[in-house]
Amino acid sequence: MSQPYLHPVSQSVALFEQFIATEPQVLVLKEKVLSLSGDSFDIRLGDGVPILKVTGTLLSVSGRKKVEDMDRNHLFDIRKEHMHVHTTYVLEDPDGNKICEVRSSHKFIGSKATATCTDRYGKQVVLVMTGNWNDRAAHIVNESTGEAVARISRKRFTARHIFFGQDTYNVIVAPGVDMALVAALSVSSAILGASTLYSLGIRTWRLFKSTSNCRPRTSESRWNFDFFHWNYLLGFVLVTIIIVVGLTEDPPSVRMTALPPSILLVQVGLTLVIVGILAKLRIRQPFAVSSMPAGTEFRPGILVIIEDVVAVDGGRGRAYRSALMERYAASLRFRRLIEDLNWFWGFGGLLMGIILICILASVGSQTFAFGLGWTVPWIWAGVWAVITTYWVKSALREEKLTWSESQKVVEV
Fold this sequence. Notes:
Layout: E1 25-31, E2 41-45, E3 50-56, E4 65-69, E5 74-81, E6 88-92, E7 98-106, E8 111-118, E9 124-132, E10 137-142, E11 148-154, H1 159-164, E12 168-173, H2 179-193, H3 196-208, H4 227-248, H5 254-257, H6 260-280, H7 301-313, H8 317-330, H9 332-362, H10 366-411
Antiparallel strand pairs: 1-2, 1-12, 2-3, 3-4, 4-5, 5-6, 6-7, 7-8, 8-9, 9-10, 10-11, 11-12
Helix pairs in contact: 3-4, 4-6, 6-9, 7-8, 9-10
């Protein structure tokens, strides 16, 4: 599919003259898998030539990201400003001077952010970024001229996103526009767009809309959300309460705002352990759990989460829900694998969350606590995901081999 064309802008939009696009350009932004510094990106042209490197700073309260060209020249930093009503990111030159501010706000459907920048001539430029939940795209428009300066699109669903939470973004830049500036705004947009509220809204709409084909098999009701969604809502409420309590203290508690990832680990881990025990004891469900109707035996929570995430977030729909459950029922080895993975993620997440909460409560520096709280859980999840990937591949190869051998025995 060809990329949409953007016309040259009537007024140049640039902070760095060397990065002004002379023709329509495509940038590809890839979040780095398992980056220990967090929110690091590789930025290349459409033909694969690298032009910029964005490196996150480990244990940074402001989530500072350093932007360099390929000669390692430091162009600017991207960092979060705290204590704003709306999420705000700023771009600073190497001397710490603010050259651009990106402030988010939410619309009823989609999201919006406004970037106020000072260009290379000292003139203020206001760029408006609007996104849509349905097409996962964003448009950047010059407020004064109404001209489109860039379009951002995100790949809908990849293995990187499933296991690591990393995305790939394609960005079309209009001639006359600074590619480095657009890349910075795209990185900011990616971070803003990954908010819990935004993701929750997307998921809710997919399950609620009348044409939805990804609801659990047990009901046609718009309000019959799946197991993962109810847990998502609970996690959202818990995180919101913690952050509100932390920010309303005088002075605001940085330590409290470091807790949400650890709390979520405990929530998810405890849920998996409890449901795993119910499944092991062959307890029957008093109510429907995703596609499994009331009265059937509980199944490991990790199986239900896989079903819900792939069916809804992956867009595979009810066909996947049915296929996964048939797969589970048909293979003893697959059932054992799912049970083992449930304990692996359940006990692992629960223990990591409890240990981290204890550390965050006792460590002296609140700044260091914030960095730990928002970095360690992602590192842990990345390590667990890598182990899971190799584990599952090995188990499925063994299952395929033994399945073929058992079929030969049956034929004889």
